[in-house]
Sequence to fold (352 residues):
Amino acid sequence: MVFGKKDHLVGLDIGSSIIKVAELKPSKKGYLLNKFGMSRIAPGSIVEGRIADMGSVANDIKTLFKSHKIREKNVAISTGGHSVVIKTINTAKRPDKELHDTIFSEAEQYIPYDIDDVNIDYQILGESEFSPDQINVLLVAVKKDLVAEYIELIHLAGLNPRIIDVDTFALQNAHEILPYGSKEKITLLIDVGASKTSLNILKANASLMMRDTVSGTYQILEEINEQLDVGIEDAMAVMNGDADGIVNEDDFERICIKVSQSWCSEICEAVNTFQSGANDERVEKIILSGGGVFIEGFKEALLSELEADISIINPFEGLIINEKKFPESFITKAGPLAPIAIGLALRRIDDK
Ligand SMILES: Nc1ncnc2c1ncn2[C@@H]1O[C@H](COP(=O)(O)OP(=O)(O)OP(=O)(O)O)[C@@H](O)[C@H]1O
Ligand SMILES: [Mg+2]
Fold:
């Protein structure tokens, strides 16, 4: 009985605009998509990754679970944005215990917060490319008050937070199960959400560079609101293509193109920084995700600036899908928004 398994989890991606939930069922042939759902939250409920309206978001989560008849209470969630710091550091090879203590004592210099205010975790990436006596370590620091806030939210929604991951790692996790393409090619994962963008350059599933920025589709919402003098609710409908006649099509298109070009400049800057580094490597593949993929001009802007092969993620391709339950039209619409929830649903309770 799959759901009786102690390590079973539901993946819950609490985005600042849309919450997504995914539940997978392991089978002999691979993972089957059992449940998937999305629900919009009120703009302003989550600001800069912090929960501004705890009651309202908890209610949205409860309703989402209820409407999709998800009974599992153990969830894996993730955080991102300002309060999460991810850095690759270099340190001397040492025995395990000594290494642990050194990383914790060295961590302070890499983190812009008081060391007592953060939870620290790390993962050894392997030998340094510069010296056989050194190793690369991925250091992750998350502000304790942020973790406490998300735990409180999940409890308030009547659920148990069993894993608290980082958005970028969950996205990477979803990418790893995709059947297509060589993982040896240098690949840039770009997630443009509503209020943040995360960039992760990978080679053979190891991260070479990560960067988070505050760009996202809410910038378009703000521009529609300010420049075209349209209320937030209507601006939201315009952005999602659910409203006709509220604004002039050309004005809307101009805003989308302007904002998506600014995302493109930011991305090109990161790619150039990576490519001009010591290594002679180039980004060969770009995989886009997040609501930003729906914005007119974004993919086109990237295609005109970068020489990589650019595609939009479909995280369902790595799963077994019952087409009666999840028709093609749904998969196409939800695909770009789903990878983080799916990456989280792939976690097991005993994962680190
Ligand atoms: N079909 C669509 N057409 C146009 N825009 C869409 C569509 N679907 C989503 N979006 C846009 O994408 C946004 C949501 O994207 P996403 O789910 O990646 O953000 P999020 O995860 O909630 O935010 P963040 O990760 O920044 O906290 C919506 O606010 C909307 O602007
Ligand atoms: Mg998101």
Q: What stands out?
A: The mean pLDDT is 92. The chain has three domains: 1-82+144-178+314-352, 84-142, 182-312.
